[in-house]
Amino acid sequence: MDAQQIRGLQPMLARFLNRFDDCFARKDTRAHLSVYVNGQLSDLQRKSVEPIALAANVPVRTLQEFLSQHRWQEDLARDRLQQIVAEEHAHPHAVGIIDETSFVKQGKKTPGVQRQYLGTVGKQQNGIVTVHLAYAADDFHCLLDGELFLPESWATDPARCQAAKIPTGMSYRPKTDIALELYDRARANGIDFAWLTFDEWYGGKPAFLQALDERPQRFVAEVPRTLMGWIDPPHVTRRPLRRGRGRGRKVPRIVAGSRPSQSVEHLFWWHPALKEQGWQRWRVKDGEKGPMIWEVKHVPFYLQGPDGLPGPRWHLVVARNVLDPTEMKFFVSNASPETSVGAILLAAFSRWRVERCFEDGKGEVGLNHYEGRCYPGLKRHLILSTISYLFLAMTNQRLRGEKIRLDRLPSPHRRLRADSLMVDGRARVDDVPGTHCRGDPAGTMPQRLRTPLPHQADSANSAEHGHQVDGHSRL
To answer: Phi and psi (nearest 5°) for 408?
Structure first.
């Protein structure tokens, strides 16, 4: 960006923040929104309250009170953000991504802090964890919402919660329950997701998968190797069985003698439908070290629910990295049977978008720079950070131009740009072509993943030639 573009952002930011005016009853409180967001978008090395206030020549105590004590409707601000995304960035193939991030914190007074596993550092350490919902559509992505995960040690300590101003009704909830709340809130504000995707921690919770299926929401979940289910579903009976005068056996139940459920890894190695099926190669994307090619096997799958019974017919996709055959991923999707394996893979490999949101959110707007000791301040900081990030994402898209330049798309004689993602949608769950590749990088030519996410302004041309997503495009 040149100096003229940078100067032109200030009026754009003012107009953007004006859309949140009705979240504040007082003008002086409303003025602090601009101070805080400008501080998050500045080049300050540390973007906590004190440096932001000092840079804006505002009393530090005043800005602290804006976060933790002043009366304004932070929930309405979050709803307004989601409504903006729903109105201006709706897309027929939008992907929602559920994930969590963590912040290293010292001491014992930050809300939710305790020694726990922090993905940021990859080990047990003192810190907090927040659950988030991200939105990705075409070349646009942003964070929609975030909520603190309150550990059980906090929920069982009322005095500690009161000191941190944690609401009385807020108790320990599993992260999957928080994720469902974030999803329901976004849907209530008009956000439509063609797909929802998440990592294997969430994918390993059958109750969570069933809750999404009942909403109903189409998803692709990476699942752990231990997830239980069937390729050939067992028979279920509703007929009670009585022996003597005792209580009859519960119904419905699996018929005695049926094959028990097995882990997806066991099914991969031993079930004929997977064992005898040839690998189908897909060129997922090109990274900095060259093309990333995955081999795929694809069969129907019936998840074992919390009640022990088989669920409806879903998809099971087994993916193996050609260059590193020891790297395998298992995916489960509740998409309709005629959905192509290419469409499933596109959603499954879209999770890097939320990682980019976390990376840019922490590096650009100070998502992890909160230093307060009360829950209202943390909650408002998460909401204001999503507002700042949305402005960056919208400005980034506007300055780059909304039209995708198709002349940069790859051909058989040209390299893809780093982290491009394409999807081809021809393989069906009941029609799985392919030959046995056995991990040979020089074997069968992989199918390119041609995207079902054409740009709205040029959908016909994009659908014909594919669409490129640049994973290294920073805000």
So the answer is: -95, 0
142's CB contacts (< 8 A; 6+ apart) are 85, 89, 134, 135, 357, 386, 389, 390, 393
**pTM of the entire predicted model:** 0.83
Distance CA 220, CA 184 (A): 18
State whether residue 127 is helix, strand or coil: strand
pLDDT of 343 above 60: yes
State both tokens at 413. Answer: 């004689």
CB 412 within 8 A of CB 291: no
pLDDT band at 6 (very low <50, low <70, confident <90, very high): low
Choose the weakest-confidence range: 153-167, 177-191, 356-370, 461-475. Answer: 461-475
Helix or strand (DSSP H, E) at 328: strand 328-333
Contacts of 407 (CB under 8 A, 6+ apart): none
Single out the residue of 432, 413, 451, 436 nearest to residue 283, CA to CA: 451
Which amino acid is residue 288, in one-letter code?
Answer: E
Q: Which of 373, 357, 229, 375 is nearest to 304 (CA)?
A: 229
d(CA 459, CA 461): 6
Helix (H) or strand (E) holding 287: strand 280-287
Query: Of 199, 193, 181, 187, nearest to 98 (Cα)?
Result: 199
The amino acid that residue 58 corresponds to is: V
Residue-wise DSSP of 6-19:
HHHHHHHHHHHHHT
355-410 pLDDT, tens digit per residue, is 999 999 999 999 999 988 999 999 999 999 999 999 999 998 888 774 444 333 33
User: 217, 449, 432: which is closest to 334 by C-alpha?
Assistant: 217
- CA dist 376 → 43, 71, 74, 109, 383 (Å): 26, 11, 9, 14, 11
Contact yes or no for 164/415 (Cβ under 8 A):
no
Please answer whether residues 341 and 277 qualify as being in contact, where contact means their C-beta atoms are separated by less than 8 angstroms: no
Residue 6: φ, ψ to 5°: -65, -45
Distance of alpha carbon 397 from alpha carbon 399, whole angstroms: 6
Nearest to 28 by CA among 58, 48, 52, 50: 58
CA atoms 342, 232, 216, 228: torsion sign: negative
For residue 66, which amino acid is it?
A: F
Cis amide prior to 233 (ω within 30 degrees): no
Decide: 332 and 301 in contact? Cβ < 8 Å.
yes
Helix axes 375-400, 60-68, angle to 10 degrees: 100
